[in-house]
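Q: Given only this backbone (397 positions), what sequence would you predict?
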């Protein structure tokens, strides 16, 4: 539904151009400007100006890390403003003023829904493309308990920790990925543009080429004659893999493959368990019951193996089984995580122990990713050096 910006004043107030202190600015959702005016009049407002804020239906797209960062910042700022005594609508309008793009449109929709009488949780729930279910549920708990600013502070801390872990792993992989892309591109350029004319000149002066030169010539001919077909096959293979991974069975097979990799497998498993521990710990500290917290953690995780394990564990817990036995039965969680859940539940300090587990696994993942990058970079440089050296050898011989 389109959003319209308006400037209005209470129906009984002065309307002369010199008196604007009682004018109110805001947004309202309506199908047409006329419906927006009628709704404002029904609320007892005299409309001075109205214009369209967004056109068309709201886009339901994921912005990935960009929208997660925007939401984390918004939650932190909203918690600070509510704690300072600023009313909800004014706080949301402040966030909207400094937001951009789709996220700003979503905040404007939230403002309009809250102004119409909806709770903040219900308003956020209408945009599941930007606001995850765990965040919505925590906001709902905070509103019901009267501790919304405290719950939002915990949610902001969780969001920032989650983004920090993701950024550390991503940053560690940037340089190796650059080397792979650059090396592959340079190799293709040398084989298709530099080597062929050089080989033509060599064949005019040499009767028989050395075997390294013949190997380089064969690779160059394959790329020149079948390069487009090879690129097409690789593109189709990548598209097929992406389509397969989008299915539950394909996603599960892919995650199983990742978990079995020598170095990346333990890193991926610990990263997933760390996120689950943070989600469950944050929800429990906010007053959410354990079965519901595990359900929301299952929905928030992207790993199919962990999701299925959490869903089965939730069913077992609701049936009366201990959480340690429920998690151990899945086989998807390391013994340390199972033990932490068990001891934390028995001691009544499950949230604290889960945060400590998340901190420990975050440190291990950051250390492992740094070591993996430190090992991968010289290996890739060595491979590039060997490839370039082979071409030089083929030319010199």
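A: Predicted residues:
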């Amino acid at each position: 539904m389109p959003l319209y910006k308006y400037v209005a004043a209470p129906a009984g107030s002065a309307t002369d151009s010199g008196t604007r202190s009682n004018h109110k600015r805001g947004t309202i959702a309506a199908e047409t400007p006329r419906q927006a005016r009628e709704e404002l009049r029904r609320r007892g407002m005299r409309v001075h100006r109205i214009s369209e804020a967004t056109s068309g239906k709201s886009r339901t797209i994921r912005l990935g890390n960009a929208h997660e960062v925007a939401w984390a910042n918004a939650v932190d700022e909203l918690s600070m403003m509510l704690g300072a005594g600023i009313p909800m609508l004014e706080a949301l309008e402040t966030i909207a003023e400094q937001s951009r793009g789709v996220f700003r449109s979503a905040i404007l929709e939230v403002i309009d829904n809250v102004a119409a009488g909806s709770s903040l949780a219900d308003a956020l729930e209408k945009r599941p493309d930007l606001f995850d279910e765990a965040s919505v549920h925590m906001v709902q708990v905070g509103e019901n308990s009267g501790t919304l600013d405290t719950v939002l502070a915990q949610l902001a801390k969780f969001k920032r920790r989650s983004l920090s872990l993701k950024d550390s792993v991503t940053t560690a992989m940037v340089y190796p990925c650059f080397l792979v892309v650059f090396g592959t591109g340079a190799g293709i350029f040398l084989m298709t543009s530099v080597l062929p004319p050089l080989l033509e000149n060599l064949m005019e002066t040499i009767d028989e080429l050395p075997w390294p030169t013949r190997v380089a010539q064969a690779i160059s001919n394959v790329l020149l004659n079948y390069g487009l077909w090879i690129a097409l096959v690789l593109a189709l293979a990548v598209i097929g893999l992406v389509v397969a991974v989008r299915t539950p069975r394909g996603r599960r097979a892919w995650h199983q493959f990742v978990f079995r990799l020598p170095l990346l497998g333990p890193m991926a498993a610990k990263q997933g368990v760390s996120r689950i521990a943070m989600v469950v710990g944050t929800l429990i500290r906010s007053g959410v019951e354990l079965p519901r917290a595990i359900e929301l953690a299952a929905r928030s995780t992207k790993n199919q193996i962990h999701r299925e394990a959490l869903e089965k564990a939730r069913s077992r817990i609701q049936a009366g089984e201990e959480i340690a036995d429920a998690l151990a039965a899945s086989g998807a969680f390391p013994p340390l995580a199972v033990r932490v859940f068990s001891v934390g539940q028995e001691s009544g300090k499950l949230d604290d122990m889960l945060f400590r587990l998340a901190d420990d696994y975050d440190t291990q993942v950051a250390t492992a990713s740094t070591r993996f990058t430190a090992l991968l970079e010289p290996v890739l440089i060595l491979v590039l050096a060997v490839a370039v050296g082979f071409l030089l050898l083929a030319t010199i011989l």
